[in-house]
Design goal:
It is a single chain. The chain is built from 5 helices and 21 strands. Strands 1, 2, 3, 5, 7 and 11 form a 6-stranded mixed beta sheet that branches. It binds copper (II) ion.
Length: 295
């Protein structure tokens, strides 16, 4: 699916949300070769509730841009890092020796690597610099979809990346990463696509009877996520997002930190269908949203 088609599928979202979610990174080449260039950018981002977070980002957004390839593609990832800090990018779709980057003075901080996308799925990509815990908590994560070679059946596609923010807002509403809370696995905010209650404020429109396919990645860095849509049963859950690992008729499914899944469902009545991480304390920290179904 093209970026334009993805944007059209989310047309009721505010334009800014569409741009953040569905603008792919720079992409070039033929169907068999895909290249993405991402740039590290330190940026104060909005995380909902009028709060901001001083984030480390890919291309200025949390989560980073959606990277989408097809099974069998030769994929090149380039990371431009103009900051003074070491950063990296590890995509879980790659079967290569990890590229570790150190912050030695004067060291080369850009990086590039190529791999063959052998396994289809919904994969996390994340910063690999040490400590990865803080780099992911500070926003350096995103989703790579490897579509199966034969493609997916037609559906309304939605992409959701779950993440966590750690820190208490100051008097100006600025949240700074709290490394103690990161280590203790006590996030202050648990979010879908980077913003507290994002899809409570702006429900995701769906149609009754249509097949909805949710590509889901849990960036963590710490908590598992039990994804659930109230009022729906998933007709199919693809563990890891791999069509070879299909399960049927599940009300919820747990996706561990660093893992992904694809969920398919239909609703048959108009209405609002909340979606949540069913560890319910997280819904008080932002991990809730709404699918709004119309005929
Ligand atoms: Cu980093």
């Amino acid at each position: 699916m093209t970026a334009a088609a993805l944007a059209a599928s989310a047309i009721a979202l505010p334009l800014v949300a569409v741009l953040i979610l569905f603008t792919p990174a720079t992409q070039a080449g033929t169907a068999a070769k895909k290249a993405f260039t991402l740039t590290v950018l330190d940026k104060r981002i909005e995380i909902g509730l009028g709060l901001t977070y001083y984030a480390w980002t890919y291309d200025g957004q949390v989560p980073g841009p959606l990277l989408r390839v097809r099974q069998g593609d030769e994929v090149t990832i380039k990371l431009i890092n103009p900051t003074t800090m070491a950063h990296g990018i590890d995509t879980h779709a790659a079967e290569i020796a990890p590229k570790i980057h150190f912050a030695a003075p004067g060291a080369e901080r850009n990086l590039s690597y190529t791999f063959r996308a052998r396994v289809p799925g919904a994969f996390l990509y994340q910063c690999s610099a040490i400590p990865a815990l803080s780099h992911v908590a500070n926003g350096m994560y995103g989703m790579m979809i490897v579509d199966p070679a034969e493609g997916w059946p037609k559906a309304h596609e939605v992409m959701i990346v779950q993440g966590e923010y750690y820190g208490t807002p100051d008097n100006n509403g600025l949240v700074a990463g709290d490394s103690r809370k990161e280590v203790e696995e006590r996030p202050d905010f648990v979010v879908f696509n980077g913003i507290v209650d994002r899809y409570v404020e702006h429900p995701i429109p769906i149609r009754t009877g249509e097949l909805v396919r949710v590509f889901f990645v849990n960036a963590g860095p710490n908590l598992s996520s039990t994804f659930h849509v109230t009022g729906a049963i998933f007709s199919t859950v693809y563990r890891g997002g791999n069509p070879a690992d299909a399960m049927h008729d599940l009300a919820s499914f747990e996706v561990g930190p660093g893992d992904g899944a694809v969920f398919e469902f239909r609703v048959h009545e108009p209405g609002d269908y909340p979606f949540i991480d069913h560890a319910l304390a997280r819904t008080t920290k932002g991990a809730e949203g709404v699918f709004r179904a119309t005929p």
